[in-house]
Each structure stands twice: as C-alpha cells, then as structure tokens.
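Technical annex, item 7. During the second reporting period the consortium partners agreed on a shared format for inverse folding records so that results from different sites could be compared directly. Each record opens with the tokenized structure and is followed by the designed sequence. A conforming record, contributed by the partner at site C, is shown below for reference.
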C-alpha cells in the first residue's frame, strides 16, 4: 500500500508540472507531395521561324553588310547552279557535281556580292533616288545599269569561269566574243524590268539581296550556257 501511495503521488506530481507532455498528441508530420512538372518546349510555327530568321538577317546586314551579302550570295548562287544541274539530270546529262556547285557558290562569294555591293552604293551616290520611282532619274539609272554595267559584268563572268575551270584567259575572251551579244539579249529580258523595280522601289540596303534572288534564275541560264561551252 505504501508503494502504491508513493507511485500515485509521483504521477500526480508529474501531471501537475508537465501536463502537456501527457495530454497532448504528438505533432503530426505533414508530408508535402512532390509534383513532377513537365517542361513545355515551345515549338514555333513556320511563320515565326521565318520571322526570326529575317530579324537575324537584318541584324547581320546592319552590323556586317558586305559579309552578310557575300554569305547570302554564296547560298543563292550555289543553289541556282544546283537547280541548273537538276535540269540537266532530267535530260540524262549526268548527276549533280558538287565541284561545279562550289565554283558558282565561290563566284557568288568573291565576285557577285562584292561587285554589286560597291556598284550599288556608287550608283546611288552618283545618281540619288527620287521619292517617286516613275522619273527620268530611275530610267537613267536603269540605262546605266543595263547598258554599261551589265556588259562589263557579264564579260567578267565568262572570264572568271574560264580561269577557274582551267580553260585559260584566251578561252574566256573567245567566249566573250562569240556569246556576249546573245547572252546580253537574254539578260535584258529579265533584268531590265527587274532593275527598274530594284532601283525604283527597293531600299538600298536590300538591293543586292533582290539582285541575288533574280540572279538565282539567271544563274540557271548562265550555268547551262557556260557548262555547254566548257
């Protein structure tokens, strides 16, 4: 009895001193659920991709105008020759020659783009554009471009490829003598209206790009002609 009485007094004393230790429930452990989030990768539509590419081109054109025009001409002119070879392949005249595409791409890089970059700037400096394209000024610039510049540049193209292909300068001069008049007649059918649009309506910084796009189709004609001669 004495032992029971002692134990009862000890329990009562503990309850009076620390009641929370015996009467409250132990704290609950709150488990935070782990959620796995999927990362959504935005896939841009075609127009958005083209828009981004155009903005990148504009930035490069402003920062590095000549280099950007050279790179653009390399791609476009090389693609023009590839198209010409595809036409030849349909006629059963062999497959696509990577070396020939490379020669035309090199022409675009080293001659086409630098020539037109400096020529267009010089022409605009000598004969500034007028607010309206329908003027004698535009007509005069077209005449200079097609009846002075075009014969010189076309002759340079014949000579350039004669040297690049190892045929020699004499072969290039002979080709100029034989084929320049007929080539210019075809050139004028394409480039007189195209040049009027370019010089009258296109801003100066985009004129070489416009020429390159038109030149894509002209390269098909020139490539077929030069390759036939070679």
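Designed sequence (site C submission):
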């Amino acid at each position: 009895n004495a032992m029971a009485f002692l134990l009862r007094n000890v329990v009562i004393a503990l309850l009076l001193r620390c009641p929370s230790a015996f009467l409250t429930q132990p704290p609950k452990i709150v488990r935070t659920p782990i959620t796995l989030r999927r990362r959504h990768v935005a896939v841009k539509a075609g127009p958005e991709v083209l828009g981004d590419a155009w903005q990148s081109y504009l930035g490069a054109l402003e920062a590095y105008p000549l280099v950007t025009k050279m790179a653009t001409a390399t791609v476009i002119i090389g693609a023009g020759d590839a198209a010409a070879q595809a036409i030849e392949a349909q006629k059963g005249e062999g497959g696509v020659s990577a070396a020939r595409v490379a020669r035309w791409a090199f022409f675009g890089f080293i001659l086409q783009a630098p020539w037109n970059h400096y020529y267009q700037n010089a022409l605009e400096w000598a004969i500034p554009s007028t607010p309206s394209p329908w003027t004698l000024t535009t007509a005069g610039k077209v005449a200079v471009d097609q009846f002075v510049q075009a014969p010189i540049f076309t002759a340079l193209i014949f000579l350039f490829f004669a040297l690049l292909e190892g045929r020699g300068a004499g072969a290039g001069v002979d080709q100029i003598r034989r084929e320049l008049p007929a080539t210019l007649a075809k050139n004028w059918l394409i480039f007189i209206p195209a040049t009027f649009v370019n010089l009258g309506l296109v801003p100066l910084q985009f004129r070489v790009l416009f020429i390159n796009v038109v030149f894509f189709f002209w390269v098909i004609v020139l490539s077929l002609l030069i390759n036939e001669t070679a």
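DSSP finds eight helices and no strands in the chain. The mean pLDDT is 85. All partners now use this format for quarterly exchanges.
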